[in-house]
Amino acid sequence: MNRVSAPLSRRGPGRWTALAASLLLATGGLAVTGPSPADAAADPVAVTVNANAGLATVPETALGVNHAIWDSQLGTNETSDLLKAAGVRMMRYPGGSYADIYHWRDHTAPGGYVAPNTDFDTFMAAARRVGAQPMIIANYGTGTPAEAADWVRYANVTKGYGAKWWTVGNENYGNGHYGSAWEADDHPDKSASQYARLVVDYADAMKAVDPTIKVGAVLTMPGNWPDGITAGSDPGPWNRTVLAIAGPKIDFVDVHWYPGGTAAESLARTAHIDEAAHLLRDQLARYAGPNAARIGISFTELNVGTGQNTQPGALFLADAYSDLLENGVFTVQWWNVHNGIGTVSQVAGQTDYGDFGLLSSGTCTADNSVCEPPLNTPFAPYHGLSMMNLFARPGDQFVRAATDQPLVTAHAVRRADGDLAVLLVNKDPENARPVTIDYAGFTPSAAAPTTYSLTNGASGVVTGQSGSAASRTLPAYSLTTLVLRPSSPVTAHPAPPGQPTASGVTDRSATISWSPAPPKGAPIAKYEVYRQNGTVSEQLGETAGTSFTVDNLVPGTRYTLNVLTRDTAGKVSWSSSPVTFTTTGPAESSCTVRLTTASDWGNGWVGNVEIVNNGANPVDGWTLTWSWPTSWQQVSSGWSATWTQTGRTVTVASTDDNRRIAAGGSTTAGFVGAYSGPNVPPTGFVLNGTPCTVG
């Protein structure tokens, strides 16, 4: 973030310009309307937690924030101690778009403001006081690979800081290449291809100084501008182009996300995260070259469009951090520590100062009519971050949790001591929500859970011990964490197996392999393979070995599997980490379908569907069907066929002009599609009841 101007200014990274803002808002559209108070009281939310459906493990670097060189409080002990208390373990420097004008040697940012006592050594002293790892942004826009390499040398050779994480640039797709320019870029060639080529040069120069560092490249969030857009002479959109060139040289990718819109829209758009993460990993696998699974994902800027320093910010922070970490992101970083007063409004009965900071800057409006609370007063998102620190600790494993109503979301982690923590987010600003909670793979003790609660307007998280594990009433606009003890000790249970992998994936089968569980307690009897069907675990098979071939799968379907260890005493381990794969279309079929993109403008696209008759006989009349992977994708209009959509299912029927497809022949139809979140391509097509090969 941070526009290159005055100190503590809100930086709208181009997305706050008219063009980008309109594009971002156009990708929304998942606003949720809550039921009436009577409905809320009569219809408890059903929460399901499946402790056997394991997700990602919480990394040491999970909870992060941004520090900016225009923040005079960057190096103060008071600020650092507040961040430490909230559990911050990674801090980003020197601050959003300022990174692309910042020169570390003389601590200057031409065209921007640099506050006193914000140099690199001061930042590192603050990071050490907090106990956080640094993430440093090398200047791409007005810098050079040599300048970045010298910074690595100073940090890790001269000073011995051991700074591991380095990103090349900030939001470099905002350099004007796509028509909107907020990011400084002095290179005559502003293409994605040129950025990627220089990322390679930066990585080579920086790792020549310290081969142990990790170098990251900037990508855009799937489903957000300029995702899907190809500009100039680039061979494809930004992400594809950057990964194809720089993929073999980078260690992680760096993504930002500002969902925009009203408070309700921002809070609802966390539903996009699973599919965005899936698309990012798919892009890595497709374009980043061999061993792309080694490339990590960081989300280093995040904030809401409305209610930045009131309860919507806190709810969004906890919900989004949890969703991203469940998907294996290694750090999520809030924008920002201090940011300054913006447009003042009332949000859910509280004064919102339009401040993107976690902590008050103590500033006033230009006419001094409204002033923020005293300097370093924590805002609601700070308390949301503190809640995350209480909920998901390094080493905890996220497990699958879900609800049956969109205004309440749930997340859960399993801990090494056997405890289970459940985070419940009530996004309804007006109504308390009663919930009932059902558990699989975990039996809570009869003791009252430890509870942590953050309510609208509260000055902090309240701790208590009350109620039962089975039901609770969530205050309006609140965060609630329950920490549950197990009904029996877990020390004698076997260890889980290693990370599973999938190989030999076809339309109907896949082979899952894993490393054996380390010895612990009774001997291992077998391993059990489960599919995650939402929060339900469906056993697919078992084996005494360390691989298993899963059969009878559905073509073009995404599967997420876990493996559990069972010992000879009948005790079951924690879940392994998940493995996700998508079955292919059939290798041979009487039909082939090719879906291609003719153009894409960030929230809509033109698609062409080619149907090939591989059979020996002509097709006389045809109906093609597929299902969109998400609820926010749709066909707006189409041609050369009769197009309908019911729910997620698209049906394309022949017309009199093209009903006959000769043996070996083909026909083509087209459509205009719309999407208000990540545009995930369909993976399976059926023609007249027959699954087709996907071309």
Automatic annotation (TrEMBL):
This is Alpha-L-arabinofuranosidase. Residues 1-31 form the signal peptide. SMART domains: CBD_II (SM00637), FN3 (SM00060). SUPFAM superfamilies: (Trans)glycosidases, Carbohydrate-binding domain, Fibronectin type III. GO terms for molecular function: hydrolase activity, hydrolyzing O-glycosyl compounds; polysaccharide binding. InterPro entries: CBD2, CBM2/CBM3_carb-bd_dom_sf, CBM2_carb-bd_dom_sf, FN3_dom, FN3_sf, GH, Glyco_hydro_b, Ig-like_fold. It comes from the Bacteria. Residues 500-514 have a biased composition (Polar residues). Residues 488-517 are annotated as: Disordered. The keyword Transcription does not apply. The keyword Signal applies. Keywords: Carbohydrate metabolism, Glycosidase, Hydrolase, Polysaccharide degradation, Signal. GO terms for biological process: polysaccharide catabolic process. It comes from Micromonospora rifamycinica.
